[in-house]
Amino acid sequence: MNVSQLEQELLQHVPRVDAEVWDRVGMIVGHPDDEVCGIAIALDACLETIQAAAAQHANVLLTHHPLYIDTPTQFVPQCRHASSAGSALCMAVQLGISVISLHTNLDRSREVRERMAGLLGLEAISSLEFPLDPGRNGFGTLAQTTPISIAELTAHTAQVFQTEPRVWGNPERSITHIAYMGGSLGHLEDMLAATPAELIITGEASYHVLQDLHYRGIDAILLGHDCSEMPFVNILQDMALSIVEDIPVVTIQGSKQWWTYQGV
Question: Is pLDDT larger for residue 165 or for residue 258?
Fold first, then answer.
C-alpha cells in the first residue's frame, strides 16, 4: 500500500466533505507514491512527533491536528524567528515523512461521538450539531445520564482524562444531560444552547463564552485542549489497523504541554 492509497482509505472512514471549508485534512506534505513502511500516530503534527515517527522507522505520521491552518511564510529549520509549523514541514521533507491529518472531519465522526461517550460511561444520543438527527455526523456529543452532581462528574472526568479540570458551575448542582466537545468550543454556544445540555465537557473556551453559557443554564468542565482529545490517538490507531496488514502501527503518546499551579 502506498501513501496515497492509505490516505484515500482513511478518508473513506472520515470523508473530506465532513471537514470545515477552512480546514487542512488529508496529506499536507509527503510522497504519495512511497510504499508505507510504518505508521506513527499522534495528536499533533509538530517537530517532536515528526522526529519520533522517524525514530520509530515510520514514514507516515497520522495525526488529528494538522501541521498548520494558515500557511507559514517560511519553511526553514527550527529557529526562534520562524514558525514551528514551517520548520516541522521542512523537517518532514528532510526525513521523508508523509503527514496525514484528520481534523474536523474526525471531530464530526460517529467514532468520536460514541468513543468519548463510552469513556465517560455514557451513551451518546446524538451530535450537538444535529440533535434531532442522531444518524447524521456532526460536532460534539449529547448524552443523558442518571442525576449526577457537577462535583462527582468532575472527579470522574479528571480520572478518565488524567488532568486537572477548571470548572464553571455550582459543584452541588445535579444534571442529567451532558455534552462533550473535543478541543475548543470556539463560538458554538448557540449550537450548544439549542440542545438540552446542562453542562459541556470540552478542552477550552473563552471567558465570555463560558459566562454567557452559565447565565443560560449551561456549566462547563474544561480539560485542556490536548487532554480533551488524547483519546483520539487510539481512535486513529484503530482506524489505521483496520486498513493495513503487516505494516507496523505505533502511537506517540504526547505528554501534557502545560501544568497547573496548586499553591493557592
Answer: 165
